[in-house]
Amino acid sequence: MTGERDAWRDIAEAMLDVRLSDRDEQLVSRDGLDDVDIDQVVRVMQSLRAWHETDRRMAEASRRYMKLNATDMRAVRFLIAARNQDKSVTPGQLADFLGISSASTTKLLDRLERGGHVVRAPHPTDRRALVISVSDDTGIVARESVGRQHARRFAAAAALSPDEREVVIRFLDALTATEADSA
Fold first, then answer.
1. Does 2 have pLDDT greater than 70?
2. What are the backbone dihedrals phi and psi of residue 100, each rounded to the nearest 5 degrees, phi first?
3. Which of 25, 37, 68, 112 is the Cys-Cys partner for 118 at CB 3.0 to 4.6 Å?
4. In the chain, where are the structural domains located?
5. Nearest CA to 172 among 16, 62, 47?
6. Is the pLDDT of residue 111 over 70?
7. Tell me, what's the pLDDT at 5?
8. What is the distance between the alpha carbons of residues 183 and 114, in angstroms, rounded to a whole number?
9. 78 Cβ contact partners less than 8 Å away, ≥ 6 residues apart
10. Does position 183 have pLDDT exceeding 60, yes or no?
């Protein structure tokens, strides 16, 4: 099994090397790049893929631990952020943030309330509305799981010099812009 896993890993790593995945340079020009440069770019891409996989595994572990799906977890994190800023959140605001319908939001809130993750209460100034808040227990659990992960990520970024952080920011912003370029 280990040998088979290593073979799959080799194939996955090769997918990131343009010398193998785009031999004829139909998509990626390698003008001005020697093999050392390309090796380094491939290592960047491999590190990015490894980070992506690590982030996915950590998010999945947090969701499993808290017994939440991805949308539920986004809702809980949003409600925690709102609470940390002393802001009230209505079901409509939560629906807007999540990009889901009011019917889906009602189902989500019913599920989260049954699980003890959120509390519904009357809006303090609008008698027709409700406000949603994260329960104290869920806030504690989220801080111990997601919060601790974020703290480690923050520490990794803080350990970089200001110039290094600017390089990372430029790189990540350029990656983000590739989505707009492909539309």
1. no
2. -125, 165
3. 112
4. 1-53, 67-183
5. 47
6. yes
7. 67
8. 40
9. 89, 94, 97, 98
10. no
Dihedral angle over CA of 35, 37, 38, 43, nearest 10: 120
Residue written as tokens 């600017």? 166
Tokens encoding 75: 């809702």
- Which token pair is 53? 């996989």
The predicted model scores a pTM of 0.71
For residue 155, pLDDT over 90 is answered with yes
94 CB neighbour count, 10 Å cutoff: 21
Tell me phi and psi for residue 120, to 5 degrees. Answer: -100, 140
pLDDT in tens, 160-169: 999 999 999 9
Number of CB atoms found within 10 A of residue 146's CB: 20
Structural class in CATH, domain 67-183: mainly alpha
